[in-house]
Design brief:
Radius of gyration: 17 Å
Distance between the termini: 8 Å
CATH architecture: Alpha-Beta Barrel
Number of strands: 8
Largest sheet: 8 strands, parallel
Strand order of the largest sheet: 1-2-3-4-5-6-7-8
Shape: globular
Strand content: 15-25%
Oligomer: single chain
CATH topology: TIM Barrel
Number of helices: 9
Order of helices and strands: EHEHEHEHEHEHEHEHH
Amino acid sequence: MLVDSHCHLTAEAYREDLPAVLERAWQAGVGHIVVIGESPKAAAAALALAEGDPRLSATAGIHPHDAADWSVARASWLEAALGHPSVVAAGEMGLDYHYDHSPRQAQQEAFDRQLQLATRAGKPAVVHARDADEDVAAILGNHPGAAAILHSFSSGPVLLRWALDRGHYVSFSGMVTFRSWTLDNLIRVVPADRLLVETDGPYLAPVPHRGHRNEPALVQHTARRVAEVRGVALDQLIADTGANAARVFGRRVSG
């Protein structure tokens, strides 16, 4: 089963034609979409979508851009959200030192606390890492019971190997099709049982759709490119990544 492991389906970019977007995904062979809830508002919308269609599931968390808003109330909200069976992961959470929309200390504190709550709930953490590899590893290392998904991976080999040595998952997005992509060697070293694919829609549309809105149907381009780099058949890549999604996100994503 082809799984889009990370898509922001509640984004404004899909407001006008979401039913058509979903129909194109199903027609393209996508079997499940993990809808990212990177804020309380987005998580509520993601959960509403997931409750209406078993081919969708939701996450809940606070994006590092909004980490300055972390509070006791946010922690209570997330703890409750993670108890819902349609919420299959915590996040998107992590560190972004490229934009620094929130102070770095606030990002670190929110990331650490969300990992604690994810571990307590027995659900994986969807991790955003940008220009912060060392601190991402350090904070993840404080939570050995956590299962992490390094989403839309474009970090360096040190973080990749550190994460793989600890059994975490790595997800690749449409960036792997870009002319500027130079990390094919990292695609090859991810074990077949730790690999995922995603759109990160509406962002990062793959070639030949770059410059346009991304959507779940286009995850097939990412899967095809990853399969080519790894030297495996597309059907095998889809089977492996689908099985991995079911393993890390749980029974709801198993089809």
